[in-house]
Amino acid sequence: MESDSVEVVGECGPRDLSPECCLKRFPGQWERCTGSTELAQAVEEAEVAEAVGRISSLALKTGAGGMIVAMAGQSVRIGSAERRGVELATDLLKEVEQVIVQCVRQADRLVNDHHFNGRSPSWELCQQVKVGERTTWAAYLGLFKHEQAWPCLRQALDKLLSPKNYRLHPRFSVNPKTGKWEHLDENMVSQIVSRHGWSGLRGTIEPDIVLLDKNGIIAHMYDLKFPCPETNVAQWEWYKEGVGKDGSQGELYKTALGVIPRLVSPREGVAPKVK
Q1: For the whole prediction, is pTM greater than 0.85?
Q2: Residue 167 in 3-state DSSP?
Q3: 75: Cβ contacts below 8 Å, ≥ 6 apart
């Protein structure tokens, strides 16, 4: 999500429990996720809310320490390169990455048009607190642009892939019994938040896009970044606490999900793989 080390001052906590992640689970509910009625009104006027869809049913069980773990099969699987099935053809993967970049650039352009008549905000404005001394302009714009990108991405990817071959902003957690990372589907996440609040998701991660092979195993992973100002280089967040402490967001994604993640930004497109 948002780069340039700009923190969101809100109630979701550490990086992966920020308002950005809240909005992924509850699209359009800006007041719930940021405490801002101004943000909620702005998004409603811009018509960028997206309904939560494709919810599947999973049984839940409370494990050690009160953590909720899945008791049913995972819809997204994590596996080594040796276990993966046939991946996307090179030309199809190239086309998929092209539409991801197109959606990211479109979202960036539309939000900048809405606020700045198409211009990019200055570095000084990016650092300023936007709403009630709670959210900086950089964080606000990052949230807004992510929300704008989801409908475009879903529509574009549905034309190229079967819905079973990709996921937008899936969440993963460590199973306390096995010590392995597992996928949490949207219904499970909603139930966890309902029972335990956002603190119930502490220690989870949520990349923006994953592509799956024919066996449902993650083969490619992407994270959207909207640097503010746009001249900044897209980069991974650095964790100061929690499960990824003293490491980067990209390093944690790679370790947890077994795939080298790629950054995607309006100016740089899809970044090369860095092993």
Answers
A1: no
A2: strand
A3: 56, 183, 185, 216
